[in-house]
Amino acid sequence: MTILFTGRKAHLTGPLKTFAEEKLAKLERVLDGVLDVHVILTLEKHRHLAEIVAKARTATLTAKAEAIEFQDSITECVSRLLAQAKKHRERLARERKRQGRRASPRRPGAAIPALGDLGLAPPRRDDRPPVVRMGRIPVKPMSVEEALLQVQDARHPVLVFRDAESQQVSVLFRLQDGQYGLLEAEA
């Protein structure tokens, strides 16, 4: 862990730096993988301000505190950072747990039936993207002109309809250049 100290209108002494390093060691234990810590100490009249920015692999934590002495403001900052780090660690654990549930939706100890027992063939292992079913639509008989009016008025750029003249299923869709394409199914 790299600690950078900055003093604004404040004289940074060796014991003060050592005190801050000892306090920040707690943070390193809680949030494994702390890379950089920037400690900014500012003296404004009789106020001793401390700001600590800790950068880890998964988060950047920041805390500010004001006290009569720098040691008190550093202690307060570190306690706030520890609270943030614990909250962040719990959030990561919850996220990992939730992702784990998505990956294995079955209960532990539940038997997995073989695909042959269910009458299903094993899935093919190829690089084709999966097909997502979005729903069912009614195929209404209408003319191409009526379909064109519906596509122009609708938010969806595709319309499936039954051509009133030929009774064939057709698809009317909006192209990127603003024109319209028509696909007609062959019998």
Contiguous runs where pLDDT drops below 50 for at least 5 residues: none
The rounded Rg comes to 32 Å
Largest sheet: 4 strands, mixed
Strand order in space, largest sheet: 1-2-3-4
Oligomer: single chain
**Run of helices and strands:** EHEEEHHEHEEE
Overview of the structural elements:
The chain has 187 residues and is α/β, with parallel strands linked by helices. Helix content is 35%, strand content 30%. The chain folds into 2 domains: 2-102, Double Stranded RNA Binding Domain, CATH 3.30.160.100; 138-187, Sigma 54 modulation/S30EA ribosomal protein, C-terminal domain (SHC Adaptor Protein, 2-Layer Sandwich), CATH 3.30.505.50. It has helices spanning 14-30, 70-103, 115-118, 144-153, and strands spanning 2-8, 34-44, 47-56, 60-67, 140-142, 158-163, 169-174, 180-184. A hairpin with a 2-residue loop joins strand 2 (34-44) and strand 3. Helix 1 (14-30) packs parallel to helix 2. It is elongated, with a radius of gyration of 32 Å. It starts with a strand and ends with a strand.
